[in-house]
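step 4 of 6: structure.
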Amino acid sequence: MASARLHFLFQLLLLFILLINHSVKCDDEEENLFQGINSYRTSLNLSSLTKNDNAACLAEEVADQFKKQPCTNTTGSNTVPGTEPQFSNYPDLLDKCHLNITNTRDGVILPACVPNLDPSLVLSNFTESLYSGYLNDSTYTGAGIGSEDNWIVVILSTNTSGGSFVTAESDAATLILKIELVYLLLILVFFL
Ligand SMILES: *[C@@H]1O[C@H](CO)[C@@H](O)[C@H](O)[C@H]1NC(C)=O
Ligand SMILES: *[C@@H]1O[C@H](CO)[C@@H](O)[C@H](O)[C@H]1NC(C)=O
Ligand SMILES: *[C@@H]1O[C@H](CO)[C@@H](O)[C@H](O)[C@H]1NC(C)=O
Ligand SMILES: *[C@@H]1O[C@H](CO)[C@@H](O)[C@H](O)[C@H]1NC(C)=O
Ligand SMILES: *[C@@H]1O[C@H](CO)[C@@H](O)[C@H](O)[C@H]1NC(C)=O
Ligand SMILES: *[C@@H]1O[C@H](CO)[C@@H](O)[C@H](O)[C@H]1NC(C)=O
């Protein structure tokens, strides 16, 4: 019994470490790109983009779909941007992030494949490509970034209802996440 508990605790800790490692690693590259895009916006006298967590959720899902594809001539910022990538399961991706197409269709999804997500190449793939035409557009007021392997995806949102990426569930979801974290902490305290 005791060893089963210990085993469970060990797995839980491992999971935490994995999760923390994963998010820190990705956050670095994503944060870099976010800052870089805002510097670019500032240099054009445009307002900075604010972080849009729901767009970031979708960006993460889209990056996850791309991740098995290697970088080629037709990937990277040569990928034709669109409001809906050609995934047959796109509705499922929206669903996972509790999003409805009615308030995501004015946003734009910009994927890029860059080996090892080299920071300067990542930034130039957005600011020195066709994508710059979206980044320099004052229509867009927010951004969410997600990455997986060599893929990094920026999703731009607007402050209008068609591109807000607002979810009815987002508040409820954060609440559930908070409750789950407290629950996990209680389990940890109990076992330690
Ligand atoms: C930005 O604004 C400043 C001051 O208003 C102006 O001098 C500069 O030319 C503008 N730059 C661009 C790229 O519009
Ligand atoms: C990549 O692009 C180069 C030059 O544009 C071309 O010569 C080459 O055939 C392309 N490779 C593929 C796999 O499309
Ligand atoms: C999205 O929202 C519209 C309008 O609020 C609603 O009619 C539609 O059923 C929703 N779609 C999904 C998949 O939830
Ligand atoms: C984009 O990244 C690719 C690597 O995937 C690199 O070869 C290319 O030069 C970059 N393009 C720009 C405009 O920075
Ligand atoms: C925005 O970028 C596009 C494409 O690079 C360019 O044609 C356009 O002149 C730029 N507009 C501004 C305001 O910088
Ligand atoms: C939306 O963003 C634009 C451009 O930044 C700004 O001019 C406008 O006031 C904003 N509207 C709302 C409702 O926040």
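step 5 of 6: annotate
 - The chain has six helices and four strands.
 - The beta strands are 50-51, 108-113, 140-148, 151-158.
step 6 of 6: archive
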